[in-house]
Design brief:
about 240 residues; about 75% helix; mainly alpha; about 0% strand
Length: about 240
C-alpha cells in the first residue's frame, strides 16, 4: 500500500465515500476502494484551497494608497506576467494574463508546498504535470480556432508555402502532440529529482547542509513554474498569430 501522508489519511478516513462515488460516476475503479484518495489529489485540493484563502484574505485589504506587503507581492507577480505576455504573445497577451497567472501560481504553490514537513509536492507525481500540460494544450488550440477560424488555424499547420504543406502538416501535428509530453516530463522530472535529493540529504547529514539543497529546491520550483508558464505563452502566441504578423 502506498505511503499516506496525514492529510490523505484524513480524507480516506472521513471522505472515502465521496471519492468512490466520483470515481464510479466517471467509470474509474480505485485500486483500494476503502482508501481511494491519493497523496497528489489531496495535495492538489490543499493547494487550491490555499490559493482561495489567499484571495479571500487579500481582496478586502486591496488599497490604492497604502498597499500591504501581500498586495505588493501579488502586484509584482501580475506585472511580471503581464510584461512577459506582452513580450512573448504580443499586443493581445494581456487578455490571457488571468490564465497564465492561474497556471503559474498553481504550479508554483504545488512545487513549494513540498518544502513544508508533512506535505508532498503534487507536481512530483506525473498525473499533475500532465493535467497542467493538457490544460495548456486544450486552451491554446481553442484560442487558435477562435482567433483564426477553423480553416485559418488548420492552414497554420501547413506552413507558408502550399508546396511544402504535405510535408509540414504531419511534422506540425507530431510537434503539437509532443508538447504535452515535453511539458509533463520537464516539470515532473525536475520536481521528483529535487524532492528525492532533499530527502536523502535530510536523512544522512545535519540540517545545515540539507538547507542548501532546500534553497536549491525553492529556486528550481520558481524556475520550473516560470518555464512552464513561458512555454504556455509561446504556444498561445503561436496559435493566435496571423500570417501577416
Amino acid at each position: 500500500m502506498p505511503h499516506e501522508i496525514w492529510i490523505t489519511a484524513f480524507f480516506n478516513d472521513h471522505f472515502a465515500g465521496v471519492a468512490s462515488a466520483i470515481l464510479n460516476a466517471v467509470g474509474v475503479h480505485a485500486e483500494n476502494a476503502a482508501r481511494p484518495w491519493t497523496n497528489f489529489v489531496t495535495m492538489e485540493i490543499l493547494v487550491a484551497l490555499v490559493l482561495v484563502v489567499f484571495t479571500l484574505i487579500l481582496r478586502p485589504q486591496l488599497s490604492y494608497d497604502k498597499p500591504g506587503k501581500m498586495q505588493q507581492t501579488f502586484e509584482l507577480i501580475y506585472e511580471f506576467l503581464r510584461e512577459q505576455a506582452d513580450e512573448v504573445v504580443g499586443h493581445e497577451g494581456q487578455k490571457y494574463v488571468a490564465f497564465f497567472g492561474t497556471l503559474f501560481l498553481f504550479i508554483l504553490f504545488s512545487n513549494l508546498i513540498g518544502v513544508i514537513p508533512g506535505f508532498e509536492s503534487p507536481t512530483m507525481f506525473p498525473a499533475v504535470p500532465l493535467g497542467c500540460a493538457m490544460a495548456t494544450f486544450l486552451v491554446y488550440h481553442v484560442l487558435g480556432f477562435r482567433a483564426q477560424g477553423a480553416w485559418g488555424y488548420i492552414k497554420h499547420f501547413g506552413g507558408p508555402n502550399v508546396f511544402i504543406a504535405p510535408l509540414m502538416f504531419p511534422i506540425e501535428i507530431i510537434s503539437h502532440l509532443a508538447r504535452p509530453l515535453s511539458l509533463t516530463v520537464r516539470l515532473y522530472a525536475n520536481m521528483f529529482a529535487g524532492e528525492k535529493v532533499t530527502l536523502v540529504f535530510l536523512s544522512l547529514v545535519p540540517v545545515a547542509i540539507p538547507s542548501i539543497f532546500m534553497g536549491l529546491h525553492v529556486f528550481v520550483s520558481l524556475l520550473q513554474a516560470y518555464i512552464f508558464t513561458v512555454l504556455t505563452m509561446i504556444y498561445v502566441g503561436g496559435a493566435i498569430a496571423h500570417e501577416e504578423h
